[in-house]
Amino acid sequence: MPRLLVTLLSFVALSMAALLPDQFGTAKRGSVRTMPGVDDALMSELGLDSAEQAEYSAAGPPAVKFTVSAWRLKDPTSAFTFFLANREAGATASKFQKVSASELGGTHFFARGNYVLRIKGWTPTKADLDKLFSTLPRLDQSSLPTLPSYLPEGRLPNSDRYIFGPTTLDRYESRISPGTAAFSMSAEGITAKYPRGSALTIFNYPTPEIARLRVEEYRKTPGSVVKRAGPLVAVVLGAPDATAAELLLAKVNYQATLTWNEANPEKEDQRGASMLVGAFALAGALIVMCVLAGVAFGLIRVAHRGSKRGQQEPAMIRLDLDAK
What we know:
There is one protein chain. Among the domains are: 14-135, Phosphorylase Kinase, domain 1; 147-249, no CATH class. The protein is built from 9 helices and 13 strands. It is of the alpha+beta class.
């Protein structure tokens, strides 16, 4: 029972631990506050775990003072969805690599793993940012979805939104019903706005067969033009005419990638030769060990006989195998 109590207390302490570290760059953390939820339904679908905001400052030189807001979500896809939905409208892509990032007027917005950060009033270096992410508790850095890569070029800046449930669908493309998307079939989507009022939404399904079965349901959506490409279903809504919709859909293509590991005869020969060399090496090592063990036993016998000089030597056990 005490061990169980300690485990429970440790879990509670871990869940209540601050997200942000005591120091960021040269600045020390000041006051910390928990940020209230803004959209409970959306945050529930995204799996918001905790969120906090902290003030940092350093006397310098140079003196700095800035604010860091942090959100921890259930997985990287949720964090990526939150990042896309909360970028400032006029933000531009950041210079930071291996992280989803944007910046606008001294405010930097980042998403890495299952965390989203907003830094206002200071520009960190790459080393500062890497060190910060390395200290974040329960950081999940599993891979992000590949679906955004299927969006064609030419979309309006910062208009793309990720969809993986009824709430995000209602927020970002309410003209498509949850029943049509069929999230129970593990559907996920990405939507973006294009010039002349067109909106393109692409849904990804586990198999091409499931996607084929969903196409007719999407065609029931008023004003929709639909195309299937492999496991993808692309839907254009709000296009000024059918030609504009078809031109946009023509840019959505799916190309399956297949990795075929064919045996290399040369490597097979090398592997066989390596096995033979290893077998001989093992046999040689065993022979050497046997010889050394025999020599060691003989030396021990000689040393023992010398120490017992003048005494009757203990009899040696013999097996009279030839006796009749």
